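Why do we care about 3D structure at all? Because function follows from shape, and shape follows, mostly, from sequence. That is the central idea of this module. The next example makes it concrete: a single protein chain, its amino acid sequence, and then its structure expressed as tokens.
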Amino acid sequence: MRRWHIREQIPLREIARRLGISRNTVRRYLRSETIEPAYAERRSTRAIDKYAFQLSALLKTEAAKSRKQRRTLKQIHEDLKELGFEGSYDRVAAFARTWRAGQTERVNPASKRTAIHPAHGAERCLLASR
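And the structure:
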């Protein structure tokens, strides 16, 4: 921001437009001695945080069951609503997605795909066909 204004002679209005912030904010940062704008880290609690332990336990018990015996996430959401959860189904589904991804990674940490260079793959195919 400072470089644009001092070296490149870009007006405050243009800097504000490029960064998507107010001209007064640009002016304030140029007058201050700070190099980069520092924003306070946002700390907000999510509604599902209170129920994370219970939801993890429910997901763990459901994962142990056979596919036909498992309850759906909608049913689990209804159970959480009975316990006092006021969040939406989408939050439960998002939590379940991240929980399942974590479980998969714990079980099989080497499940990440490795890229094979096309030339090396062709060599392997040629060697296998001999």
